[in-house]
Amino acid sequence: MFVDSHCHLDFEDFRDRIPEVLDAMARAGVTHALCISVTLEDFPRVRALAEAHENLYASVGVHPDYPDAPPVTVEQLVGLAQHDKVIGIGETGLDYYRLTGDLEWQRERFRTHIRAARETGKPLIIHTRSAAEDTLRILREERADEVGGVLHCFTESQEVADGALELNFYISFSGIVTFKNAVALKEVAKRVPLDRMLIETDSPYLAPVPHRGKTNEPAFVRHVAEEIARLREQPLEEIAAATSANFFRLFKLSPVAASA
Description:
Blueprint: E1 2-7, H1 18-28, E2 30-35, H2 43-52, E3 56-60, H3 74-80, E4 86-95, H4 104-120, E5 124-129, H5 132-141, E6 149-151, H6 158-166, E7 169-173, H7 183-191, E8 197-199, H8 221-232, H9 236-250, H10 255-258
């Protein structure tokens, strides 16, 4: 079985397609998916998906690419996380690629999410782009290793991966690892310990080869696993079993939930 550890099924791309998307997941052997929150305004839609479908889960958080989002507090995040199907805090982190100028507000929002994760005991879901040094520094300063989490859609260097692993984080690979020009990332995928690896789609974005350019969806996470198996010269079944087990372990899901 496969698990899509990061997708956005509440986005407009899927608004009228959820039954179709879930059917495609089942046919591809993708048993579970984690629907990721990007704003608190849209969080109720994310939570509703998880409530309506046994094999979907939710996170709560505010993405760093939303500068106009209202300030978020630890208390807000902790309160919204008190739900059995809300299993992580985020998507949070830093993005110095899309936004420029004084980004101290972004760093403070990131710290707020880390503090909420530590209070709830639920792992962090981290977005980092062109900000790896500050991301790791803040994770260290806020003692994020006490709760752990995942660097999602990983595109950084082996050095950054090693830094995250030291902080009790997992590394998640998306469809980018299937792209021909992702040479350095493919090398990282060979070296990350299998017991600290997740796979994801980040759908509707970043569809893997052979679907590149199309709307991505959780069923396509199988192609990410296939590429990692090819790179590591390991059976696909081993990659599938390990990354699925890692997901359930990281997000503290019971064996009953894992076999649902």
